[in-house]
Amino acid sequence: MAPFLLSIYLRAAALSRKGFKSKAKHGIRRKEDMEDRFKRLKSEMKGLSEEQKDIREGQRQRSARTQIKLTLMFRILKAREAGDFDTAANLTEMLRLLDQLSLVVQCNSRKRGGKGNKLRVECLVER
Question: In percent, how much of the chain has pLDDT > 90?
């Protein structure tokens, strides 16, 4: 009777060791899968971070453009109040040109993907 119990015990131990080895191999695969996922997530996060920077830059540019427009409108009103209609006409023309330039830039940036025209437009606005 004792040898029978011993053989059962040995079989159970052998099975548990086999199961342990397969779990270890499976654990290694899981670890590799997790590492792959982390790498993918890291690259996705990097891409999202760049997109956010582009969005913030676009918001800054729109904010600056809006500030310029508001300043021009205020100066137009002040020139009209003072009766300086030549200055008001010049400022109004500048405001129209700024709006047209903004529309052209938006159209070009949509057609070409956006990134290539931003620097050129900033240069045109600064001149």
Answer: 35
Q: Of the candidates 37, 98, 101, which has an alpha carbon nearest to the alpha carbon of residue 68?
A: 98
Q: Which residues does 73 contact at the CB level (< 8 Å), separation at least 6?
A: 95
CB 97 within 8 A of CB 69: no
Contact 105, 117 (CB under 8 A): yes
CB atoms under 10 Å from CB of 91, counted, come to 21
CB atoms within 10 A of CB 105: 20
**pTM, to two decimals:** 0.51
For residues 45-71, average pLDDT: 90
